[in-house]
Amino acid sequence: MVQAWRKVNFGTGTVTFLDDTQKEDMLQVEYPNGFLLDMGWYQDRYIISIIHNFDWTHPVKRYEAADRDQLPALLTEAAHSVERASQNDKVEKWRKES
């Protein structure tokens, strides 16, 4: 079965890891200027994190969903957000607005 998130448009992002298994490491997309979009399953929910300069301790933005059906919409929203942020140097401003 092809997962719905395989159809998400990640813009300028490059999918560097994709695994349909429900586990911590499921999806990673690299963007320009040091941005990553990361998705995984943690205990009872999916978590999508936007990371800048490999600072995993302080994600720029985070999305959560308990239901797999919510993922395409959340991934699309996250991809659009990180796409905009990766095209400029306004990371701190974006971090504060999140």
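The above is record 1. Record 2 follows with the same two-line structure.
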Amino acid sequence: MNEKINIFLSSLFILVVVVGLSIFAGVAYIYTLCGLSVWAVIGHLVKLDDDMPGEWSNMEGSPEAWRRSRVELLIKSLVMFSLVTTTLAFPSLGEFGAH
């Protein structure tokens, strides 16, 4: 139950950030979503070595933490590629949110 609440609150937070940034910068919602997803993937790639067994974020050497980090990166990458593909396939989405 707690995971569902966390997912809901995280999604709500991302929605508020996307709408706020889109209004502030005057860009379409889909472009803001793409930018945030690219930022998340690049940030995860930069910090990926910290999750390796024995490294900074995984000092106890847990293979589970390393596997979980790679799964999270895969999910973030799939979301990013689906957003970019959708944006390229449907350019009319660029009209929503742009002022």
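The helical segments are 2-25, 29-47, 63-89.
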